[in-house]
Design a protein that fits this description.
The structure is a homodimer.
Chain A (H helix, E strand, L loop, with lengths): L1 H16 L4 H4 L2 E5 L4 E3 L21 H7 L6 E6 L4 E7 L11 H5 L1 E7 L2 E8 L8 E7 L7 E6 L6 E9 L4 E3 L6 E7 L1 H4 L10 H8 L2 E2 L13 H9 L4 E5 L6 H18 L5 E4 L11 H24 L3 E4 L20 H21 L4
Helix pairs in contact in A: 6-10, 7-8, 8-9
Chain lengths: 365, 365
């Protein structure tokens, strides 16, 4: 009788909630993600699901809030569960921006490692009705056996709690980070990830999987202007390499005023670590918008001029002058500025070989 | 004094609203888009910004509502304005789904033709606060001179009104459709466009620009199951070719039961027009989800079996067995099912040559 009731309850739950909630009706057990392995934090002592603790630094409130997001953070675990669920609470009730999907902004993205390669497994979709409490089955009905999992967290929201659900009787345990390197990204909205379709599809996350590296990401939308506090963060942080997308938000004037001292400071703190500066992209919006084109041309010219000179002075500073490659067909962005998944792919194909060449000189391969 | 006040008003408006509303503060004139050229409607007598008038057909309410969307519709005009604005009202206040951006769901996407080629110019971002009244500057500060413009409408919303704004004193007039062909698309959410980043980036819109064709699009999310009413619509519609993504939402059982009669009907109405059926994609979600994989394998096997036989019987029916190509790296979708912009690009590169080869036989090139 008990079994019949249980079956009826499941059928009723499916009828009422749809298959999505089937696994919520079947008993599953939840574990707090903070007890698993959390990677890609900028600094070791950061709050657990937060990319950086900004309280140590002087910065405007907007940037401070942005540093509290879960951008780039991933949770590593091993489980033999055939289904994987997630319940998570986001800091903001807003789950999208105009030029990004809710899955990218506030959702989760799971990869599973097979034969040494990470492969996409499923996403968890956030609510879009103004609630900040989310629940979703990330992947279901998998084959039996242990799986090594990496769950990427929201790119433009913070996560105040995350529970991972597995089938009753299954096991879950922390997976020690299998990544060999640590490559730290500083940058604009483009490095923040806009506008890949989901967290694991951002150019930073993809480079991490390709180069076998953890990839802390402190890209901040619209606000990366060679400020002192970014230099402070870099000076305080540890990595095998640092990547700088510091020219996308900086005008030519800002570059003229700040870039030399910025580089001097970070090179002083990391004299033997590769510091790779990326030229900003040639924006498609400038194809017709002449004022945007002028601003973009000027910032690119200033970056090129300064970096050529700077690279002569600092032996471990590198400049990649063709970094973000969107193609010439106008199809690589969502809005003329932010890479869509095609723009990400073209960037990966162009940038990774150049990065590898530099990193190899430092024994990073 | 009047000029000074005007300048002050503009500065104040910029201070209060930001540059986005600068052009709303500068006087501009609006024209009703329905007085311009509207292309890609399924049938000539459809309501002006609607892809199809569903009232002629028997269909479930959800599909009926979907047919009223502005999916695929574009407005053609010529203007010498240096700035282009838009005010539009959407039918639904909801401006995104979980796996799509608001710009794609409810926004506008402008292309301008240069030397015979359409190039992306800018997007209009919808509100995401629950309002259905939207206003945005699509592109600004362009060079002087006449521009041929194509403005794509929302993919997952309807548009009850659309006004296009140009600089005071500038002219705007309908642009006669320069497209040589008319290729009509029937299909699932994938044909509906999910999950390209913006309306003009959908695989259907991109194929239209590449093949110089108007592209009516009656793709309906989750609901294209070889139903009689789809056959009715195709029988009643005119095109140089019809493309069918009819297997993505159909189970093997549905394909077994319906495909032969569906093809017989549409081939009977269009005996000399190429009718190209696309195999459904191999879904990445099936990489780990075994039940999804089985369902997907079964539908693909049923489609292939039936279409091989059907193509022998109907000389103008064609089957492309490798149509949607997502690559083998798992990076071509947002959720394991719906193409992101990388999946669209890979599909375009694979599908267009195959389509061209078939269309050439019918003198369509």
């Amino acid at each position: 009788m008990k079994q019949i009731f249980k079956t009826f309850a499941v059928i009723a739950a499916v009828a009422i909630f749809g298959t999505q909630n089937l696994y919520a009706a079947i008993k599953c057990q939840y574990v707090d993600a903070s007890t698993l392995t959390v990677i890609n934090k900028a600094q070791e002592n950061n709050p657990v699901l937060q990319r950086l603790d900004p309280n140590k630094y002087e910065m405007p409130k907007g940037i401070r809030n942005s540093m509290k997001l879960s951008t780039g953070i991933a949770v590593l675990f091993t489980t033999d569960s055939r289904n994987i669920h997630a319940k998570w609470k986001t800091i903001s009730k807003r789950s999208c921006n105009n030029n990004m999907t809710p899955i990218f902004h506030s959702g989760l993205d799971l990869y599973i490692r097979e034969n040494g390669k990470w492969f996409f497994a499923g996403v968890a979709r956030p609510k879009i009705n103004g609630s900040n409490e989310h629940e979703f089955t990330v992947v279901k009905r998998m084959a039996e056996g242990k799986k090594e999992c990496m769950l990427y967290l929201p790119m433009f929201n913070g996560v105040s709690s995350l529970e991972i659900g597995i089938d009753e009787g299954a096991t879950i345990e922390p997976l020690a980070s299998p990544f060999k390197h640590r490559i730290f990204f500083v940058g604009s909205s483009i490095t923040h990830g806009a506008s890949a379709c989901r967290p694991g599809a951002s150019y930073v996350a993809r480079i991490g999987r390709i180069l076998n590296a953890e990839t802390p990401n402190i890209g901040v939308s619209g606000q990366c202007k060679l400020n002192d506090f970014y230099a402070d963060i870099v000076c305080d942080s540890k990595a095998d390499a640092f990547i700088f997308d510091t020219f996308s938000n900086s005008t030519a004037k800002i570059i003229d005023e700040r870039v030399y001292n910025f580089v001097k400071r970070v090179a002083g703190a990391h004299p033997n670590t590769p510091l790779i500066f990326l030229q900003t992209l040639k924006r498609d919006i400038g194809h017709f918008d002449l004022a945007s084109r002028k601003r973009n041309d000027d910032q690119r010219a200033a970056a090129e001029k300064w970096m050529k000179q700077i690279c002569k002075e600092f032996k471990n500073v590198h400049f990649i002058n063709h970094a973000f490659e969107l193609g010439d067909d106008g199809e690589g962005t969502i809005d003329g500025t932010h890479l869509n998944d095609l723009g990400v792919q073209r960037t990966i194909e162009n940038l990774v070989p150049k990065m590898k060449k530099i990193l190899k000189k430092y024994g990073i391969k």
